[in-house]
Design brief:
By secondary structure, the protein is mostly helical. It folds into 2 domains: 85 residues; 379 residues, no CATH class. The chain has 22 helices and no strands. α8 runs antiparallel to α9. The chain is globular and about 75 Å long.
Length: 504
């Protein structure tokens, strides 16, 4: 009887392996077909747009240039989304092609003007400085100490950790730039996820959503907010009084949505039925946070460096100090005080993100040289006809849509002079309505694609580096519904404040 059972077991095992092999081969064939269809589609699209460019450029060089450079921009990010493992190579080659074609076709084009005018050096400086700060403080055990504190509070439960990650990122992002908060929180997320065998993707995406919401919380929480605040002359407290109620309302909405999109039972990578005792609650409660600290002196110095940097970011606007200077200063202070080895730190910096940002800014700069964004803004001014509500709706939609496609920083910058002109007739009644519409829609609209905000780019890059590449479609499915909902709520909220209460 036992022999029969063994034979049956062996035959079932062979059958199972055969089915698995056949299924895997079928999946490979399906993927190959999908890749072939994608390549054919991209090839046809490239031929069509190339033909359209040649035809249009013959009769209208201006329109032809817009078609060409828009095609280069769109194709670049389609390829980056599909071939994420070579995204730096793709974007650098695209930059080279865009600069070469611009030098041939755009009259008076000079490549160094693109670098001077459109390269966001402050973002690059923040990424560099905060990467230096994170790497310097991480080895002291500071982040491990925070993680153990979070574990003890949550007792290792998925949902409390999920909420705490969102709230911690939101709190950091209201004081720090969203890139800074993303870099800080991601290192803790990956360590925590590896310790509990959780999928880090939901935690990283919740952090991205938190930075989007926090991007409109204060004047120092995002570069679009800083641009608008300095241009419109809005005070720090005045800004906070308008933004804080909306942020507080957005928090439970975001948490409820994230819990629905990422059910807690699907976050653990191991099956709880197979290993019911994956998380030892008593062990977690008995953890000593100070057990991970080898030298308390370095720990306190790292915490001091981080605290000084946060205070520096909060005071940067009042002292007229660039955020990049604060970030690099904080990184250097941390490196010196913690006595970190500089060669090791430099080798571990996130150079790929810096290169990706640089390539993105060059591509957007070349696209702006065609005046496509300026033309769009002028069309917006003409179609509104001076009506306040219609102007607000148009700015809300245009900013939200194009911030996700082009990045919310250049879109905000391009709309600043247009809103300044549009706002002249509203100066005595609702002087700040259009400005807050621009900030809110830029912050929320920039989050529906991974290229619309700096935090999204950092998140995708870090997940790819950790061996968890994020599918472009998955990002869109996650963020389009919640971004659209928050944009609508923001529009209603600001319109009520302006039209019914006359507050803004």
């Amino acid at each position: 009887m036992s022999r029969i059972k063994k034979r049956l077991a062996l035959s079932q095992e062979k059958r199972r392996k055969f089915i698995q092999q056949r299924f895997s081969r079928q999946k490979i064939k399906e993927k190959t077909k999908q890749h072939l269809v994608l390549k054919i589609f991209l090839g046809i699209a490239l031929l069509l747009f190339s033909g359209l460019f040649i035809i249009l450029h013959t009769y209208d060089a201006y329109l032809g240039n817009i078609i060409l450079f828009s095609l280069i921009f769109v194709m670049t990010f389609i390829l980056v989304a599909r071939y994420h493992h070579v995204q730096i190579t793709i974007i650098l080659i695209s930059c080279l092609i865009a600069l070469f074609m611009a030098a041939l076709l755009l009259e008076g084009f000079e490549w160094h003007n693109v670098v001077d005018h459109y390269m966001e050096w402050e973002v690059l400086a923040v990424v560099f400085g905060m990467s230096l700060l994170v790497e310097s403080t991480a080895e002291t055990g500071l982040f491990d100490w925070v993680i153990i504190r979070m574990l003890k509070i949550s007792k290792g439960e998925v949902y409390p950790l999920f909420i705490m990650t969102f709230l911690l990122t939101l709190a950091l992002s209201t004081v720090l730039a969203n890139v800074t908060a993303m870099i800080l929180i991601s290192s803790m997320i990956f360590t925590l996820a590896n310790a509990l065998d959780y999928d880090p993707t939901p935690f990283i995406l919740s952090a991205v959503l938190a930075t989007d919401v926090a991007g409109m919380a204060t004047l120092v929480s995002s570069l679009p907010a800083i641009l608008v605040g300095t241009t419109a002359g809005i005070g720090f407290i005045d800004f906070l009084l308008i933004s804080l109620p909306f942020v507080l309302v957005s928090i439970p909405i975001c948490i409820f949505y994230l819990n629905r999109f990422f059910p807690p039972e699907k976050i653990p990578l191991r099956s709880l039925e197979d290993t019911p005792d994956v998380i030892d609650r008593e062990m977690i409660l008995s953890l000593d946070p100070w057990g991970v600290i080898e030298e308390k002196r370095r720990f306190y110095l790292a915490a001091f460096s981080l605290g000084v940097t946060i205070v520096g970011f909060a005071l940067a606007q009042f002292l007229s100090i660039p955020l990049g200077v604060v970030a690099i200063s904080g990184g250097v202070i941390a490196m010196i005080l913690t006595q970190s080895e500089e060669n090791r730190l430099l080798s571990q910096l996130n150079w790929s993100t810096l290169l990706f940002f640089g390539g993105l800014f060059i591509l957007v700069g070349v696209l702006e040289e065609t005046n496509v964004l300026n033309d769009l803004a002028k069309w917006l001014e003409n179609i509104s006809g001076g009506d306040l509500l219609l102007s607000g709706i148009l700015i809300l939609l245009i900013t939200a849509i194009f911030s996700g496609v082009l990045d919310n920083i250049p879109v905000t910058a391009a709309l600043l002079p247009i809103i300044t002109d549009m706002n002249i007739i509203h100066e005595t009644t609702n002087p700040r309505y259009l400005w807050f519409i621009l900030v809110f829609s830029g912050a929320l609209g920039g989050g529906w694609t991974p290229f619309g905000s700096a935090a999204g780019i950092v998140a995708v890059s870090l997940l790819a580096r950790e061996g968890k590449p994020l599918n472009f479609g998955q990002f869109l499915r996650c963020f389009i519904p919640i971004s659209a909902l928050l944009v609508v709520i923001a529009g209603v909220y600001l319109s009520v404040l302006a039209l019914f209460f006359g507050i803004i």
